[in-house]
Design a protein that fits this description.
The structure is a single chain. This protein has about 350 residues and is α/β, with parallel strands linked by helices. It is built from 14 helices and 11 strands. The strands form 2 sheets. A 9-stranded parallel beta sheet has the order 8-7-4-3-2-1-11-9-10, with helices on both faces. Strands 5-6 form a two-stranded antiparallel ribbon. α3 links the parallel β3 and β4. The protein is globular, with a radius of gyration of 20 Å. The model is unreliable at about 345-349 (pLDDT under 50).
Length: about 350
């Protein structure tokens, strides 16, 4: 199996922006030391849920402080970008990382699209046109495109990616149209962290079904599935360390979607006004996360492995959990869980 780190780059109240970026970078550096295959950075805008609004800039910074671990955008919001700039920026990151970019794209969530003046209905077409134009720019010396949203006439971009013909493409897709679009362009599937594990597996299977219908062979080592992960010595310690921070994640997501947020009510003010979370910690603990002792989390990963998962990623630093706790959890996961899924362990099982 492959293992990855998934970074939302959460921005809890009281933390400075520089502290958040510094700790995210340090966690990726530690992941490299521990043998993780890739670190994925999630792009979000206008929310404390994630501070990596300029995810490729952050990835470029991290590339300068690492040497082996791959760097994934999970995802870059293609719907809000000009394809020429996007192609140039991603190619630059691929060069500066010595060919370590895994390029994940998506259409973005409703609050982000509103902030950029793009309707949900329009975002799908923008996403498709942008992705196709980026691929054209990467593979055609002099490229022209005349679409609904962009006119590109006789453009040859520089620089071009190190990886040929271009970096591996990934997409977090769920609806039937976007799944078919991703399969037809050989974009590898990834699942996010907020769906239940069962929902994530269904999304993955929908992609595999379309790929099979198209006669395409999919390598499970190229299909990451992400979960919130926390590993500690006892279950009491797990619950004590994570409850506040996991609930904060869902509260932040609810605030993003609320009318109050659009009128300028801050997250902290909104939390003071609301009566109780709409979801319980126990529900999240049972359905959404891989929390527990090393033995428990190992069993959870084993169950996924039995269902065909070969690439698993953990979000360890969620919701302002704290850098020390996140790194300690990563260390335990790498020491007590990951070795059970190495080739030598599989052969001896």
């Amino acid at each position: 199996m492959r293992f990855a780190l998934f970074e939302h780059v959460s921005w809890p109240s009281g933390a400075s922006h520089s502290q958040v970026f510094r700790e995210a970078t340090a966690q990726v550096q530690r992941a490299e030391e521990l043998g993780f295959h890739c670190a994925w950075l999630a792009e979000h805008h206008f929310t404390q849920y994630g501070l990596a609004s300029a995810s490729m800039l952050l990835a470029t910074h991290i590339a300068a402080h690492t040497s082996r671990i791959r760097l994934g955008t999970g995802i870059t919001i293609a719907s809000i970008r000009n394809p020429v700039l996007l192609a140039e920026e991603a190619a630059t990151l691929d060069i500066l990382s010595d060919g370590r970019l895994d390029f994940g794209v998506g259409s973005g969530g409703a609050p982000e699209l509103r902030g950029f003046g793009i309707s949900r209905e329009e975002s799908r077409e923008r996403f498709a046109e942008t992705v196709d134009a980026v691929l054209g720019l990467w593979t055609t010396p002099v490229y022209s495109h005349h679409g609904k949203f962009f006119d590109i006439e006789g453009v040859g971009i520089g620089p071009s990616p190190v990886q040929k013909p271009y970096p591996p493409l990934y997409a977090a897709v769920r609806n039937p149209w976007s799944v078919e679009f991703a399969v037809d362009r050989n974009m590898r599937h990834m699942t996010g962290v907020t769906a239940t594990t069962d929902e994530a597996m269904k999304q993955r299977q929908a992609y595999l079904d379309v790929a099979a219908q198209r006669g395409k062979v999919v390598d499970p080592l190229e299909m990451p599935l992400f979960r919130y992960v926390y590993v500690a010595d006892t279950d009491d310690e797990v619950r004590r360390d994570t409850k506040e921070h996991l609930l904060w994640v869902w509260e932040c997501l609810e605030w993003q979607q609320s009318d109050d947020r659009r009128t300028g009510l801050s997250l902290d003010e909104w939390l003071k006004r609301r009566k109780a979370p709409s979801v319980s910690y126990e529900e999240l603990y049972e359905k959404h996360v891989f929390f527990g002792t090393p033995a428990k989390v190992r069993r959870q990963v084993e169950e996924l492995h039995r269902q065909g998962i070969e690439y698993f990623g953990g979000s360890f630093g969620f919701g302002g959990l704290g850098h020390a706790n996140a790194v300690r959890s990563m260390d335990l996961f790498a020491r007590e869980v990951m070795p059970n899924f190495q080739p030598s362990a599989s052969r001896s099982a």
